[in-house]
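Human: I hope this is not a bother. Would you mind checking the protein record under this note? Thank you for your patience.
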Amino acid sequence: MFYDILALIGGLLLPLAFAPFDYPILAVIGLFLLFASWLNVSPGRAFLRGYLFGLGQFGLGVSWVYVSMHDYGGASPLEAAALTFVFTAFLALYPALAGWLSRRFFIGSRIYQSLIVFPAVWILGEWVRGWFLTGFPWLQVGYSQIDTPLAAYGPVLGVYGIGWVVAFVAGGVLAAFHSARKPRTLIAVAIVLVLGMGRVLSGVSWTQPAGEPFKVTLLQGNVPQDMKWQPEFQRETLQMYTEMTRKSWGSRLVVWPETAIPAFYHQVKETFLFDLETEAAARGTDLLIGVPFYDQTQDRYFNAVVALGETPGIYFKRHLVPFGEYLPLRPVLGFILDILEIPLSDFASGNGGQAALVAAGHPLAASICYEDIFGQESLAVLPQAAYLVNVTNDAWFGDSIAPHQHVQMARMRALETGRYMLRATNTGITAIISPKGKIDVAAPLFQRTQVAGTITPIEGSTPYARWGDWPVVVVLVTGLSFAAWRRRRILQTDSSAE
């Protein structure tokens, strides 16, 4: 029972390692408590303790789901609480299965389990969570280290590589508790080397400038979510963004947030957008504007970003938000649409072979909303893209921890690719993020404002931009496959001896 409670406490500590709390050491402590609870127990008990950890981790860390469903989705307090609990209960299965697998298929000393098995199984569990059923990579431990020396692993191994280092350190501390003096010394040396490598990598520049710096302006309209799609508010919204844009004519590029235009593209293309594009061209300014796009020939609509300027283009969002933009398993989960009142909740996804948009004279990697939380997908138009642009509408999260967590993940994309990230949001956090993953300038939440700054186009590839997540995944799978083979050989030897 003591270790059951310890696992739950570890799960509650883990979200505090992330923004807005920012206590990254708690990621190590949380995993240390979880791994300690998995030592020398049955697979069933490890499953239970992993589940308790997951309830704490996601119950606190994604509590903003309630805000989205109740405050903005139209669900009653009881309905929102029930749906949030179901979501949390499902996510908790990932650490639960990690615990079960680590005890079911791998045997060895406490040191072997702590240093090799537990960290590898944990990170592979995060990786599966990042793509299974469209993926939900929220609260992956690597993000918590964006402001620590371990962040230098990002351009090489990505968020999963950073996460493995955190898990290895947690497992190493645990292994040291169960070691004699000499092994304990070796473990300490290994931890110091892993941490020290972060310092070494921080001095490496993987990418380089590809042209002259240029000025950009990001607009944060702060349009209330409950008013955004009301027809009588449309003219006021368009006028507000137009006035903000006219104040930014000195910029080479102006970026509007996700679905900033509360109308379909074809409804404003020949009128509002034509006039705005003509005016912007006369000032030498390119525009990137979030707008829903209706394909009348196929009766489908898309979440899109339109480039207006020297090189017109359009990007259709590829990775949709379950329940927010489309409904998975509609025959089973269709009742959820009866609970939630979400406009434009049945988007179609864009194809994966879209050409890069071009703005301010350079190709860019565009993403919409939570597409920026998927590291592998950010690489689709690299290395030709000179910078990253994300437009989003985090108004659905209200004044919760989610906007802070979201921008933390956007920072990781800039770090992994070695490029500037321009992040334009409706209510915040709008920011210009440097290639090192640092915020150069940002707007406060829930203010109508503009964020202006200068960025440099970038060329070249980081190791992560070349290989993505696969090096980490392949190494961990290979290591666990060897460990499983080793377990089988040991069991066969023991059986033969009998």
Q: What stands out?
A: Residues 98 and 125 are 6 Å apart (CA to CA). The chain has a mean pLDDT of 89. The chain has two domains: 2-204+468-497, 208-466. DSSP finds 16 helices and 14 strands in the chain.
